[in-house]
Each structure stands twice: as C-alpha cells, then as structure tokens.
Design goal:
Helix content is about 35%, strand content about 20%. The protein is α/β, with parallel strands linked by helices. The two termini are about 30 Å apart. The structure holds S-adenosyl-L-homocysteine.
Length: about 350
C-alpha cells in the first residue's frame, strides 16, 4: 500500500493517520516486518492490523556471488513463483537490479527471460519487497543505492504496479529514494511511454533500442512491429527532461547483425537531436541464444563511429556473467503457465 492509502484505511478504522508514517518507518527504515514488534503502535492497533492485513516479504531462497562481487538473489513469492534480483557493487554506485514481472512477454531474440514468456505481473509490494530483501541481506538499509528496473520483465507492461512501487520507494518516511536514483528500462511500449511522460514521479529513462531500422529491430524486438522506431524517437524528443538529464539508449551488440559500421552511422543519424547517451551492451551469450558477441575490435569501432559523430557513448561492462546474473541472463526455469495465462499473453 502507498502511505496515503494506508492513512485512509487507518482513519476508516478509527485510528490516527500518522500511524501510517510509523508503519512505513518500521517496514522500510528498520526492516521490521512483524507487526507485533512495532512497539510504538497501540496494542489494539497491532492486533487489528495483524488480523486484517497481510504483510508479506519475498523469501530469499538462494544467493550466489560472482568473482566480480555481483550477487544474484533467487526469491520465492507467495504463490511459489520465483524471480531473480541482482546486486551490482561499485558501478561506481551500488545498484539493485529489480524485476517487475515473472518472465516477460516481449520475447526479444537475444534475451533468456524472454524465453520464459510472461507468467504474471509482480505487485507493487513484490517489487518493493525485492528492495527490502536485498537491503537487509546486504546490510544496506542505511546505505545509498541506485535502482535499475532491468531485471526480469518489461516495466511498462506492468505500468500501474511499477509506478506504485516507485511512489512507495520515494516516500519520505520509507526508503526516501529520489526518482533520480531510479532508472526504468523499456522496449518502448508507446502508450505507456507517453503516459510516463506525464507522471509526477519520474525515473530516469532507458530505451532498449538495439537496431537503427524497423526492419532490423522488428527481427530482434518483436513489439517493434507494433510500435516502430520513428514513434519511439518522436516520443523521446517530447519527453520532459531535467536540464542535465539524457535518455539512455541501450544497444545490444550482436556479431554480424547490428554491429556493422553502417549500423553505427544510421544510429548516429537517428539520435541526432535527441538528448541521448548510448549504452552499448556486448551480447552476453548463452545456450539457446542464436547470436554471438562481437569481437572487441568491432565493439570499439562501433563506439568510435558514434562518438566521432558527437554522441556520448559507454560500453556496459558485463557483470556477474559467471553466475548468469548479467543482462539478459535471468531465467527461472520449470514454472508452468496456465492456459488462461498463455491466452492473456497472446492478446
Ligand atoms: N524489458 C526491459 C527491461 C530489461 S533491461 C527492457 O527491455 O529494457 C535488460 C537489458 O538487457 C535490456 O536492454 C535488454 O535488451 C538487455 N539484454 C537482454 N538480453 C541480453 C543479452 N543476452 N546480452 C546483453 N544484454 C541483453
């Protein structure tokens, strides 16, 4: 629940609104999830809350550490579905990579999560719950960290719960996480992107572009057949940005597919006039992914062509590859979809 909704619920039950603030502080600042232990709440309120409200936290099932310090967390949800979240230290900031769905419906050709299909959306509580669990497990409740919505799922395909989660994370009595510390990465679902542009709480935006033409992108990112590059770029140009901020364009480099000099030149042309920075992501290869990572020379050449044309370019360092925690490697196998869910994905 958002704090305002909790305040209203408390008031309705004859309690004072400020109790919501106390509950938020217990939950998010101190990491106390046992209502009985929230000792500054009156006894009758604690009993009433425990009887009427469920306070659930994703269960930490498994934790793996990469040689580079990246950590992957397997979390079990209330219905026994599982998701992964990743902690990436020193990027230079500390970063939590959080999931927004169990699986994903976008089916991008190079992404393992896409192979799962969409099993279900996460609730705002489950999205924020990942942050609570990681903060606790890493003893970082009082530390500064950034959040990237780059785990499993397409955040704009689960718009309402994702935005609700961002508001809860931003709450001054909870994590008080500035939206500037949060980056939402999306394939660019156009209607949702346009809605996002009107939100009062606005995260940083990253667009998973991956190709400079509709023909190429349509092959890699199927949703491009519905929302093409021209419309996405136009929406980006209209996107309200702070004076200093830029939209990140992510570009997975696939050997011989989208890493040629002409692709770089087309990309530079496409992004001319957009307040952008380009983040090149050399493919994290995996069994079942029918693409290869380009050579370091090809990556350098691609980056050079972009920067010669005035673009800000970075190459994403692959983190946690040895534990399959890198971009596109999050997959939790053995979860069956019901027929109804399969149908819902297709519609
Ligand atoms: N659905 C959102 C959030 C996922 S973010 C989105 O698409 O933006 C994860 C990023 O990693 C995306 O840019 C995605 O395209 C990229 N990615 C997926 N598979 C990858 C792989 N095998 N190697 C490198 N990057 C990959």
């Amino acid at each position: 629940m958002e704090r305002l909704a909790l305040e209203a619920a408390l008031e309705q039950r004859g309690h004072q609104r400020f109790r919501a603030r106390q509950i938020f502080q217990w939950l998010y600042r101190r990491g106390v999830t046992d209502i009985a232990a929230m000792t500054d709440l009156p006894r009758n309120l604690r009993a009433g809350l425990a009887a009427e409200f469920a306070l659930t936290t994703p269960a930490l099932v498994h934790r793996e550490t990469s040689i580079d310090g990246t950590e992957k967390f397997l979390l079990r949800l209330g219905d026994d579905r599982t998701i992964e979240s990743v902690f990436i230290p020193d990027t230079p900031a500390m970063t939590f990579c959080i999931s927004t769905q169990v699986g994903c419906a976008m089916a991008c050709g190079f992404c393992l999560t896409g192979k799962m299909g969409l099993l279900r959306n996460l609730t705002a509580g489950e999205i924020v719950g990942q942050v609570r669990v990681l903060a606790d497990a890493l003893a970082m409740r009082d530390a500064r960290f950034n959040i990237v919505l780059m785990g499993m799922g397409e955040p704009l395909h689960n718009y309402d719960e994702t935005m609700k989660a961002l508001r809860i994370l931003a709450d001054e009595h909870g994590f008080a996480l500035s939206p500037r510390r949060i980056t939402l990465s999306t394939v660019g679902l156009l209607p949702a992107l346009e809605k996002l542009a009107r939100e009062p709480v606005m995260p940083n935006l990253a667009i998973s572009l991956h190709a400079p033409t509709d023909a190429q992108r349509g092959e890699l990112v199927p949703i491009n057949r519905k929302y093409g590059i021209g419309d996405i770029i136009a929406a980006c140009k209209r996107f309200p940005l702070n004076r200093r901020s830029r939209i990140t364009f992510e570009y997975v480099l696939l050997a011989g597919v989208n890493d040629r000099p002409e692709d770089a030149r087309r990309l530079a042309k496409l992004l001319a006039g957009v307040k952008s920075k380009v983040n090149l992501i050399p493919l994290n290869a995996a069994p079942g992914i029918p693409f290869e990572r380009p050579s370091d020379e090809a990556i350098d050449r691609f980056a050079r062509i972009l920067s010669e044309r005035g673009l800000i370019v970075s190459v994403r360092k692959s983190r946690g590859r040895d534990i399959r925690a890198a971009c596109g490697q999050l997959i939790v196998e053995g979860q069956k979809k019901s027929a109804a869910q399969q149908l819902a994905v297709m519609m």
